[in-house]
Amino acid sequence: MALTKRARRPQSEPTIALINIVFLMLVFFMIAGALAPTLDDEISLIDTAELEGRAPPDTAVLRKDGSLMLRGVAVTAEQAVSASQERPNGLDVRLVADRAVPAKVLMAQVSQLRAAGAQSVWLVTERGVEQ
């Protein structure tokens, strides 16, 4: 008596389900993107290319050489934190860093400000809109 092998049923392809899910996600994001309000064509944005860049008042400035300035005077991290106590937001220090400051220097200065008692350090950056 010879044993015969049982015929295997072909397995369905799991990629079909994956393609269906990706297609449904594509349709969802196309609809969601179309529902977002667009900028009115009759509006022209303000051009700030000629605007003079200045740090906001009472904001510590980190220069590219690593020095910390406040109101045009070189200060230590402790002095910057104590000056922030006079503002309504308390121990939140706002820091404007020069674009040329290396990341290691920036993170070291943030660590010094936190060690001096700053609850949080907010990095003030430039924001641009591309057309």
List keywords for this structure.
single chain, 131 residues, alpha/beta, five-stranded mixed beta sheet, elongated
Characterization of this structure:
The protein has 131 residues and is an alpha/beta fold. 32% of the residues lie in helices and 15% in strands. The protein is built from three helices and five strands, in the order H-E-E-E-H-E-H-E. A five-stranded mixed β-sheet has the order 3-2-1-4-5. 12% of the residues are buried. The mean pLDDT is 78.
What is the topology?
Elements: H1 15-35, E1 60-62, E2 68-70, E3 73-74, H2 77-84, E4 92-97, H3 103-115, E5 120-124
Parallel strand pairs: 1-4, 4-5
Antiparallel strand pairs: 1-2, 2-3
Overall residue-averaged pLDDT value: 78
Distance between the termini: 81 Å
Shape: elongated
Structural class given helices, strands, pairing? alpha/beta
Helix content: 25-40%
**The biggest beta sheet, please?**
5 strands, mixed
Give the percentage of residues in beta strands.
5-15%
Give the strand line-up of the largest sheet. Answer: 3-2-1-4-5
Q: Treating each run of at least 4 consecutive H or I residues as one helix, how many helices? A: 3
The oligomeric status of these chains comes to: single chain
Number of strands: 5
**Unreliable segments of 5+ consecutive residues:** none
Order of helices and strands: HEEEHEHE
